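Minutes, project check-in

Agenda point 3 was the complex the collaborators sent over. CS summarized: four entities, 1684 residues total, and the question is how they sit relative to each other. Sequences were read into the notes so everyone works from the same version.
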Amino acid sequence: MAKHEYAFYPGCSSQKGASASNYLTSVESMCKTLDVKLTEIPDWNCCGASIGYAEAGELPRHVLNARNFALSEQHLPGQEIVATCAACWLGARETRERLTHSDTLMADTREALKEAGLTINEMPNVRHMVEVLIEDLGFEEMAKHVVRPLEGVKIAGYVGCQTNRPFGVAGESFENPVYLDKMVEMVGAESIPEYEQKVTCCGGALAFSEPEKAQAQIKDIVESAYDHGADMIVTPCPLCQANVEIYQGQINKRYGTKFDIPVMYYSQLMVVAYGGSAKDAALNGQVIKARRLEEIAAKPVKR
Amino acid sequence: MADIKVAAYICKGCGLGERLDTDALVKTAQKDGKVPLAKSHEFLCNADGVAMIKNDIANEGVTHIMIGACSRRAKTEAFHFPEHAVARANLREGVVWIRPDTEEARETTQEMAEDYIRMGCAEVKAMTAPAGNLNTGGSKTLLVVGGGVTGMTTAIEASKTGYPVVLVEKSGALGGWAGKLYKRTPVHEPYKSPADTGVADLVSQVQADSNIKVYLNATIAKTDGAPGRFVVDVATESGATHTEDIGAIVQATGFTLYDMNKLPELGGGKSPNVVDQAGLEALAAAAAEGDGVIRRPSDGQPVKSVVFVQCAGQRDTTGQHLSYCSGFCCNASIKQAMYFKDTNPAVDTTIIYTDLRTPGNGEDFYRSAQEKGVIFTKGKVAEVLPTGNTSTVKFNDLILGDTDAAMVDVDLVVLATGQVANSGINIDALAATAEEEGAVEVKPISILNLTYRQGKDVPQLKQGFTDSHFICFPYETRRTGIYTAGPVRRPMDIAQAREDATGAALKAIQALENAELGRAAHPRSGDLSFPKVRLEGCTQCKRCTVECPFGAIDEDEKRFPVFNESRCRRCGTCMGACPVRVISFENYSVNTVGAQIKAVDIPDEFSEKPRILILACENDAYPALDMAGMNRIEYSAYVRTIPVRCLGSVNTIWITDALNAGYDGVMLMGCKSGDEYQCHFVKGSELGRTRLSKIDDTLKTLNLESERVRDLEVAITDIERLPEMINKYAAELVAVGPSPFKGF
Amino acid sequence: MTEHVATNETILVVGGGISGMTAALEAAETGKNVVLVEKNPALGGRTSQLYRYFPKLCHPTCGLEINLRRLKGNPRVRLLTLAEVTGIEGSTGNYTATIKVRPRYVNENCTACGECERAVEMKVDDPFNYNLSQHKAAYLPNAMAYPQRYVLDPAIIGTADADRAKAACKYGAIDLDMQEETIQVKAGAVVWATGWQPYDAAKIQPYGYGRFKNVITSVEFERLADLQGPTGGKILRPSDGREAKNIAFIQCAGSRDENHLRHCSRICCMASLKQTHYVREKYPEDGKSTIYYIDIRAIDRFEDFYQKVQADPSVSFIKSKVAKITEDAQGNPVCHGVDTEGYKRYTTPHDLVVLAVGMEPSVKGINIPGHIVADSSGFIEADPANGAVFGAGCASNALDVNRAVQSATAAALRAIQVVNKVAKAEA
Amino acid sequence: MSANTAVAEKYRNNFLKEIEEQVEMGDWVKMCMQCGVCSGSCPTNFQSAWEHPPQELFMMIRAGKREEVLTSSSMWNCTSCYNCIVRCPRKLPITHIMHGIAEYAHRLGMAPKMQPTRFFSGLFWKNCTHTGRVNELKLSMGLYFKDGFVQGIKNGMAMQSVALGLVKAKRLNVMELFGGHKCKDQKGVHAMLKKAYEIERSRKTAKMAG
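CS then shared the predicted structure for the full assembly.
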């Protein structure tokens, strides 16, 4: 039996063939190494994300998340729910807070859930994978498994918004969280603590609806990473990853820049450092190839 | 006067021994200082040194002590001989620490030290240890003028401390302004809702207290005397006057709301539906009597919408209204808005403000009002237009940048007008007319009816308030033993007024206790010396009676000055003012300073050793010079410094004597005067300067250059600046050349 | 000053700042015996670290000089420095305070001649300058220090420097064997005047205090302006020592903020208005001040002061709580935000940013008797449950100097009422 | 009488009350003290300026400027970055209030018709609730074709490089057009949401009536 077990809420973007499928792959390899067992919540549904607000209203949004809680409770009793996607985690956690603080909302939710033949008896803890790594395992434990330090790679830790605000990771500040830098150091790479765009918003859903606004922000995020001499950017959020990575070409067109910097998930760095292959780390999932990592991943493991 | 025995003690510690020829100093004391007993000691301030002095007092009958060591500001515990006359020659901060330790400097440094020894001996001989003022009264009763929250609090607190109180209230009931309130702003957590005023409780406490004698419908017909022995006539409605012996007085006469009729543009006086804060309190109180619904005065309909106009006739820069902020109005309007919201949340309440001022926990009260749905709009109200039973409020919405925003169909408009102090006659009438702050009502009726030569009431500071000008000493008034408290001295709310009242009670108690012991009040608290006058020499010129910053001196029918010692603050301004020099203190007189000036040895004009006399205010200039010494900042060896109690105590004779004696220049160092004066005797430095402005004539008659006298405005922080100024002046004087009076 | 035995007719005053000194002196001058306890080596408290007072722009040391003279001449006040009250037992009219006295390593023989200071080499941070500078490990706390007696920093003990200091003192004033001692003092009433501490600016993350060198606090700015301060009265940037002429003042740095201090600290607006005078004083030609504010709280007669500053062309006011501060390549702090009067956005670089930090009561977290009633901000409330322990000055509320002194005077009377009762009972 | 005029009638000149009752977290609007930290913290604020930043919207609500507020595009600029929430000295949940006002304007049909984010927001919700899970391809397509077929092709071409990159990286699956990810119990999801809407609507109408 595994050291740590959780009910897993991958979220839409992490599904096969979806925009963050590489995230999922790398998380799975990472968890194998760390002996963390994730059991997918059967038939989970979308969290509604923050952008659903125009139609969602309040109750429907919470009911969506509540359904996942109910399923988790039913099939994986007693397990905390872990999400890898910032939006999923935030959406679910918001629902958790609201339901715990409003009996009416709770009652209404239960009534709606009935329609799907479900119910909630107790509120599950909803946690982000990063929380699990830092709080349940700890940096020391994570470091133990590093067999292929990412020596000489300079990585800007881009935390973004929704893993950081309004809840954030315990003990971190909203304006200058440092856990990604610590993780970068942990895998033997060089961090950039003074990277001042680490919590700048990538534009979120506006990347779709109003690209020019989002891309203006993405430009700052990438530019500053270059200014600090970063080889790549690392992030804990699928939307951040996608936005910062895939629009670099368009930004180059718009602003005449020459951006071409890989944007990775912390899990990918860890898998490579843990001795995993490029495939385990889903490096093939990068739109902008992470050559430095591919080279390292090709190297034999020091044992 | 009992025969005196002077002893001089010279310390060798702190480098004095190495830098100076202390044996020579001992000789100087004996030869020039003519003291029978002169000794030096390795370390005068230690137990052994002090024991030596005490032994001489006990066994040698030493009465007068001259200590040649460090500054009078240092080692005060060691050199503490309250029963004896003590002079300190400042050889450390004043000589060795401000001179270079070089061979060529040695001679001038030694001369400097020797002069200070001569000066110290001369000074101490001219002194006697103060015996204390015998002309005191022992009344322990407090007079409290005003029966509002402030007055009642003062009375209750004084009584609790064990002092009887006479409380005089001009109206027929206790309570004052707060008595008219429906409720007050909260003073305890959670600061959420209006609280009971507590006035009823105060009233019953006062009435139940046998130690407090209350006069209602009464005023003060006459206040005569001084702390410890005031005699006060209380005039009552019946026409009868009652005479009370009083020790000290607290004036708590409160305020009047600024008249809203002066604000027609804001609808003041234009409609019954435009009221001031007092008006709303009345409506709220009336409502509370009935069904709790606050009604529109014009037709008795329930108020559905109310607008509060903040800073009405306040913070005015046009000179027409009050220039100041009354501080309490923001919280008051918040409270009044709650009167509506707490009974019916549906009433629209809007507070239009420019800066919302709710300091401290008032911020919680502000938040609470927002929670209750009170709307806060940052804007400037231009006009209130009453029509029929409603009004239109036109304002500039500062957030939305809407210059002609308006609220229509407003049932009730409340103008938050400010507090105007009930401070009696403004005796500095000149100041009042020159008051650029503008339209402050000058109440024509006196409150205290003091028999003082300088006027019937306590001097006002600004805008009609009697507040102290001092930041560190808020209770200081210019009338010893008379303190003001509450809104009469600064706009304030009930909580502050009660705190203020309690503090004022202490000051009053302190004043009467010290008066009985013949001790001075702040800032020379504990000083037993007091002015003595040789009336036979007096020319009745009245300068002392006019100039005394504290109105301590009256005049008898023959126009001779009558000194009320217990009113005196010992600044010496009278002494400085007296042209015939008949006023003196036992330990500070024309003579104690004059003798020092004469004691200095003046080299002849060929020696190229000029002499500069510095008369330095002991509160600021002298400490600054001390600290220059502590920082080892060098300055000229030609200066001889004498600390004075205040620039106001400087008698021009000292200057002319010095110049006649052949000093090349005189420097006067006093505190800042004028509006932002820093003189702790209020007018002292200013009066001193006025006197000096006339010195030029004297210089002309002596046909001396005007450079020979230099007046310097000094702050205690001028630690680097003073040495610079001194050296600059010394250089200037060299240019001017030696005084022609040398060697005469 | 002579020693006297403390009885339950004695008033214990805790804190030797302007409030504590006032309470002690007012009580003593009314004939009461007082024990005054100060945790620092010298009296004066925070006000003695200010360059000027508002609204008169006079110097705090001027009033301090008067108070010190009152003290020197008054045998009724017994002063304990380097002393902290660690607990109070008993009840109204009969308290026993436990006081921890740290060693000064210098006895009353000290003449403040300064030989020990010249002899030692070790330097330590100077708290009087908020650690913006260092002083020798044998030091006089400041030029006005009372008692006028040197102090050895504990760090020096056991080093060669300590022996040098001892050797340099001709008067046997240095005693390296002094130990911390705990004493007990009886008192009938207690005035708690421990004052305030500046809110920890590092907690206000968006402003980057601690991350950006040129973002400082208002109390630090006072030291920069002070002629006796670390820069000799020149306003220089911490980062590069360049003259700071374009200065931003950010109001409500910690105050009126539910993420930090819920209350309004009252003094900060006036303090910043005052500090714009420093900028003009030091740079009359090209000094420039910008005040970012929510509401300017220049209450009662202070309004005149505000109006004068408003009339000054070198000072501009922006109604806005600055959203965040960043740092540009030249090390200039850049303020980002929105002027809410008519929605104007700004991104403005300054030479220096001064955070008008809020007042936190020093009582917070300090071990005073459990039954003391304080409000949620930590200020001591006037409550009968507090018996004869009376809050004074900024331990009781966010107050300016003037109001603090009023509060201290009132507290003194409350204490006197208690000891008078005791005296009556015993007579 | 349209929903809009109905509520307008009910609340007459008290727009704040309307917002408090009809908008998620609307009862916080009155707590704003106009410090402006939210406006200064908003990432989109510093580009092409908002029409009205949050704190100004709150003031407009208090000033009863119903039409301007509900037809404004401002709320739709929110990127849900939560900067305003964590910095607000009065702890207003500003992000949610912005979403709430937007949702209300949308509900009343007053929000700007072709505001792209409004459109996308609706699209996203339909998309994810249709099968219970997001279909990223359909989502993007839907957005491109919001301004009609021709514009859709144009948008599509513009995004071609991006799309191709994703396809190559196996992060965009063309087959998603036909089927794609879904929940098994779609019926349950739909029924549940239907119910949720019913309850929410009834509560809001109750407030309006009451």
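Noted in discussion: Helices of chain C lie at 18-28, 60-72, 115-119, 160-168, 218-225, 268-282, 302-310, 401-426.
Follow-up: revisit at the next meeting once the mutant set is ready.
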